[in-house]
Amino acid sequence: MNAKKWVCIALALVLIGSVVACIAHTSGGAVAIRSIEYVTEDGILLRALLYVPNSATNTDPAPAIVSSHGFNNTAEVQNMNAVELSKRGYVVMAIDAYSHGRSGINSVNMDHDGLVPDMGGYAALQYVDRLPFVDSTRIGMVGHSMGCGVIQNAALRAFTAQESDPSIATPTALLLTSNAYSTDADVKELILAKYPVNVGVVYGQFDEWAENMWITVKKGSDINITPKAIAGMGFSGAKYGAYYDFGVNAELSAQQAVEVAANKTLRVIYQPPIDHPMVHFSSIAEESILEFFNVTLKAGTEPLPATSQTWYWKEIGTGLALLGFFIFLAPFALMLLKLPFFTGIVKPEPLSPTVVDDRKGKLIYWLIYIVCLLPAPLLFYWAVGYPIDIPNMGRTIPIVLTANPYFQLPTVNGMVVMNLIVGAFLLAVFILTYQFIMKKNGSTINNLGIKISVKNFFKSLLLAVIVFLSGYTLLVLADYFFLTDFRLWVFSIRPLTVMKLGIFLKYLPFFAFFFIVTSLTLNSFTRMRGQKEWLNVILLIGASICGFAVLTLLDYGSLKITGIKMFEYTAFPPGANFTSALGGLFVWNMMVALTAGAVNARILFKKTGTIWTGAFINSLLITLFAISNAVVVQGMF
Questions:
Q1: How many CB atoms lie within 10 A of CB 205?
Q2: How far apart are CA 219 and CA 35, in angstroms?
Q3: Residue 395 belongs to what H/E stretch?
Q4: 203: Cβ–Cβ under 8 A, 6 or more apart, which residues?
Q5: pLDDT tens sequence across 403-453
Q6: Pairing of strands 173-177, 134-144
Q7: DSSP-assigned beta bridge partners for residue 173
Q8: Which helix (H) or strand (E) holds 173?
Q9: CA distance linking residue 27 with residue 30, whole number of Å
Q10: What are the structural domains, with CATH classification, of the chain?
Q11: Is the Cβ–Cβ distance between 463 and 469 less than 8 Å?
Q12: DSSP 78-130
């Protein structure tokens, strides 16, 4: 199939996926969605997605939910909750927490009054309360991971403020997903213990953060006996999935649960058999969420079963669009290479300098191959560390490259370290291999795909920029017309804010170094001379991700079998025993990005005969993939 047909397929995937996502997002037009931005009482810009069902009116106000994502996420990650709850008649406000997504950055050196530990949750609660089509007596809040701290801090702020101002809105129910109850410093009492509010928890049996969040246990399956669970439930050993009245160790029937919820003392801990990020992608988890709010906000009267879910169509749609985005780039570049202006870039592909035609050659090849796989997985948890940096909540963990005025993205800084170290290692191996092996096979600098004229170098760069901007335009159009980004589960790309554009340019050189090196190494000593193309593509993909794949298999295989990750802690700082849970999630993104990079590098090297066009496109693409959803930290600078 030629490039033009692949471009058409890619565009069709983007369009069809965006339409499907939009239909699912709005529940077939039954829910109006709009992106809102306003400056809150904290003096900070808050952005949110507001879902308003057609059934919510001034004369028949609906219950409402404030939804808060976790660290390094955005409002879109709460799509599953937003779709299913709004479909059932709830008004939903899914926020970008301060310093996340398109919301403003909260820091001590700004004009507003210091840090805000609820990160916009309180402001969102007051916002939905003022909506004329919302029933102020039935407002719930749901959060994921860090978002659980957001909603608990917001509720505490609201209840405290209401003591002196009765007009302040307070929540009826809080549901914490993938995090623990917030307690006092002695872990004896829930911070909301003296206030009337129903509180539930959804915590996965295989959640990677169990020890970090519940302190005294390592497995998610054991959280019900922890001091935090005792503080939240009022007793130890609560049965998972059972409803209780706070402090009373007696399971409630469905009707009793509704009655206790009316008194705002209901407690429950759900435990689906999932890990931390699967809370965003689990019908079982969503059943628990729908059931909890049905009991606490609707007195158990919701007619649509919790099992009747359609959120996954939104994921299918945006997933197709994401796939189309990735497919689009290389074929579109091939189309541009047919234009007279760019035809000078096209050169015959040089023969691979790697010749594997005897037993010794094969042994040397696989030895080098395996050696080159080792640095990435061995260095990963050291380089990435535990990049939690939430100044609002007074929580910053030291990592190798801490957030600073230049490197403002703590979750991406580990990738910068990896790019420099692994890139330098691969370059050193390449130089040694060239000197001692490739030259003996007749290779010279002229047939490695490095040599290029200055004019063609800049033409290659220009072509890469045009390809990237064309793909980026698809992303902007999907956001504008369909209010969707490109995503599937934890893999996502979204348009950049003005601030993120500047940050993109700061990080780009460090990704460019790595992808220039890998474009060289993959197409030289990884690619074998005389082998079938499909085999070489597999070898290139394997060289890019096999180390990470083994790391993930061992880590998550252990988690599923024993309930504990094989590599529980980060290697930096030494002996600190910070959880590796957050870094482990980034490995999935790395494997997707590096697979796409390997394929692009191969296609464009084969067409142009040099490493440069593919390297430039990969640098732009994967920098965007890395930073577009990353949290921006400026708080302490």
A1: 18
A2: 39
A3: strand 395-396
A4: 176, 177, 178, 179, 180, 220, 223, 269, 270, 271
A5: 999 999 999 999 999 999 999 999 999 999 999 888 887 788 888 999 999
A6: parallel
A7: 140, 198
A8: strand 173-177
A9: 5
A10: 31-312 (3.40.50.1820), 329-454+497-627 (no CATH)
A11: no
A12: GHHHHHHHHHTT-EEEEEE-TTSTTSPP--TTSSSSS--TTTTHHHHHHHHHH
Give the type of residue at 40.
T
- Whose structure tokens read 């790309």? 493
pLDDT digits 0-9 by tens, 234-288: 999 999 999 999 999 999 999 999 999 999 999 999 999 999 999 999 999 999 9
Distance CA 321, CA 45 (A): 29
- The label of the residue with tokens 């890998």 reads 518
**What is the C-alpha separation between 571 and 553, in angstroms, rounded?**
19
Q: CB of 214 within 8 A of CB of 183?
A: no
- The SS3 of residue 612 is helix
301, two tokens:
């009267």
Strands 134-144 and 198-202, by their bridges, are: unpaired
Sign of CA dihedral 571, 574, 580, 583: negative
CA 486, chain centre distance (Å): 12
**Residue with structure tokens 């050291």?**
382
The answer to whether 595 and 538 are in contact (CB under 8 A) is no
Question: Token pair for residue 188?
Answer: 């004896």
Place of tokens 């040099």: 610
